[in-house]
Amino acid sequence: MTETDLSTSDERTPAPRGSEVTSAPSPVRVAELLAAGSGPEELLAGTVRRTVLPGGLRVITEKVPGVRSVAIGVWVGVGSRDETPLTGGCSHYLEHLLFKGTPSRDALSISAAIEAVGGDLNAFTAKEYTCYYARVLDSDLDLAVDVVCDMVANSLVTADDVEAERGVILEEIAMHEDDPGDVVHDVFADAVLGSSVLGRPVLGTVDTIQALGRETIFDYYRERYAPPALVISIAGNLEHDQALDRVVRAFADHLGGPARPQDVRRGEYPFPPPPGIVVDRRPTEQAHVVLGTVGLSRHDPRRYALGVLSTALGGGMSSRLFQEVREKRGLAYSVYSFDNQFADAGLFGVYAGCTPGRADNVLEICREQVQQIAEHGITQEELDRARGQNRGGLVLNLEDTGSRMSRLGKSELVHGELLSVDEVLARVEAVTLDDVRALAGELVDQPWALGVIGPFDDHDFSAAVAR
Q1: DSSP state, residue 88
Q2: 3-class secondary-structure state, position 119
Q3: What is the mean pLDDT of each run of 10 residues along the chain (467 residues)?
Q4: Residue 372 contacts by C-beta under 8 Å, 6 or more apart in sequence?
Q5: Are 253 and 152 spatial neighbours (Cβ–Cβ below 8 Å)?
Q6: How far apart, in whole angstroms, are the C-alpha atoms of residue 296 and residue 9?
Q7: Is 444 exposed, middle or buried (0-12, 13-18, 19+ CB in 10 A)?
Q8: How far is it, in rounded angstroms, from Cα 394 to Cα 428?
Q9: What is the pLDDT of residue 19?
Q10: Do the bridges between strand 58-63 and strand 230-236 make them parallel or antiparallel, or are there none, so unpaired?
Q11: How far apart are the C-alpha atoms of 106 and 453, rounded to whole Å?
């Protein structure tokens, strides 16, 4: 019998951490919490301010002059890597459930409140964190803070909602499975990381989602969504003190104790045995291939060199892979390189979608291009172009308050430092030809892995990963 079978259909439970439905906190209580917090600490010449509230809840804001919007994100330091094999998909399942209702709002009230003022409300789950966010006019900041923080702090997670959302998530998994261009990245992760925590899919599997019950999910929520694991980041036309006051009012029942935030994840990843080849045999019209190896963690100072390398290799229409595979030979429509960085590990690879009969040729060219960079490096022209592409992408993204909010949240939660734009640009500009060549050499000397989706029965892909 599953946990779901043990749940009653009409169960309505109180908010997490044992709190009951209460009225708004008194002005005295709000003042006490504000006074007990540390800060505000001023960062980046005073445009960014950071306060740590009792219990370890962090609030970080950036005032952006000249805009009429604000974006708020509640970042939670929990993702799919924090699950066990039996609870795979729990973080993402919980993300869905937090939109279903609190003691003061039902699901319709949550969405209608933001949509009524022309705002956006959404969330996403990654391998190491989850984010709930909204973007509204600056005049609606108080509303957005109240709604998003209420969802995160006080969701009911009822048995009825768990059952209703189970079907939605199973449909999301089915939709994902129908897109081999996406699924092949899961296959590649399996080839490199196996069943280790970073190798498992964020969505979970059909089996794990069907087995998850309300008690397991609610306990996960109560344990993982504690103030030390939370970061509230807000960017736009706002004042820090106003935003802080609204956050305190929303979280008042859950704040108390020392202001000790959760530490940034670090460490050495327990990699499984050397990577290999994983083929998902499907009757697709195209072969989808991802060829790659272990990359760098987000804390590795060489990550800027890796970004330049990835851009030069397959980061746009002027990149080597696009020119060699698509422009010169017409072997594929889509071809690109990527690097994914985690707290203690990373992935580096190239993707291509092509006719199955061309897969070997495409893989050979991709491997050759990486090998050439390892042996001969890239040209000065390629270096300048890749650095410029990275610089431009960074600065242009910061034109949007949502991107600024994300930068604040990630910097606080997963990086442990907030660099100015000029500092990041300087680190990109400092990447040299020797840096790129040396890093490419390290990558090609590692064991390589291959993930494949396509109509292959006994095809031998060993040449693609041979050293």
Answers
A1: T
A2: coil
A3: 30 36 71 79 86 96 95 98 96 98 97 98 98 98 98 98 98 98 97 94 97 97 96 97 95 87 93 90 97 97 98 97 98 98 97 98 98 98 98 92 97 95 96 98 97 96 93
A4: none
A5: no
A6: 47
A7: middle
A8: 10
A9: 37
A10: parallel
A11: 42
CA distance 440 to 371: 8
Determine the pLDDT at residue 140.
98
Structure tokens at 151: 């969802």
Residue type at position 414 = V
Instruction: List the structure tokens of 247.
Output: 């956050």
How many beta carbons lie within 10 A of that of residue 441, not counting itself? Answer: 14
d(CA 40, CA 38) in angstroms, rounded, equals 6
Write out the catalytic residue numbers: 95
Structure token digits, residue 185: 């990245």
- Would the pTM of this model clear 0.90, i.e. be above it? yes
Reading the block at residue 283, the tokens are: 């009757």
- Residue appearing with tokens 């749940």: 7
- Report pLDDT for 23: 63
Q: How many CB atoms lie within 10 A of CB 271?
A: 16
Q: For residue 279, what is the DSSP state? A: E
In 142-267, the DSSP E strands lie at 230-236
Nearest-angstrom CA–CA distance, 331 and 310: 20
